[in-house]
Amino acid sequence: MPTYKKDISYLGRDFAGLRSNLIEFAKTYFPNTYKDFNESAPGTMFLESAAYVGDVLGYYIDAMFKESLLPYAEEKNQVYNIAQFMGYTPRLISPSMATVTFSQEVPAMTDDPTQPD
Questions:
Q1: Hey, where are the domains in the chain?
Q2: What pLDDT is stored for residue 6 in this prediction?
Q3: With b meaning 16 or more CB within 10 Å and e meaning fewer, what string describes 91-100?
Q4: By three-state DSSP, how is residue 105 classified?
Q5: Any residues with CB less than 8 A from the CB of 78 and at least 6 apart, and which?
Q6: 62-115 pLDDT tens trace
Q7: What is the C-alpha separation between 53 and 55, in angstroms, rounded?
Q8: Residue-wise DSSP of 51-81
Q9: What gap in Å lies between CA 46 and CA 22, rounded to an integer?
Q10: Of 104, 109, 110, 114, which sees the most CB atoms within 10 A?
């Protein structure tokens, strides 16, 4: 009976890391079932598809975790939700509007002979 490796690294979360981890996993746990790890092997396509799905899921998990932290949140709605969760109720202020009339008195005649009337 083969001895199985119990330690699995969860650090390689990009495509290349996931692909190499999946190959190592298959070699460790299924040494007699699948042995063809060629680039052109059909099993490699399934292995790389699983690595791609893991890479995309890792990206979305990281993005959602980043949005849950106030200093790193980018979506305005998420910042409001975090602020309300912390007990702060932000006041949603709309810009002010006013009607303003400007006027200026300009003299029609001047005492300066160099200036036109």
A1: 15-85
A2: 60
A3: eeeeeeeeee
A4: coil
A5: 67, 68
A6: 999 999 999 999 999 999 899 999 999 878 788 899 999 999 988 777 778 787
A7: 5
A8: HHHHHHHHHHHHHHHHHTSGGG---HHHHHH
A9: 11
A10: 110
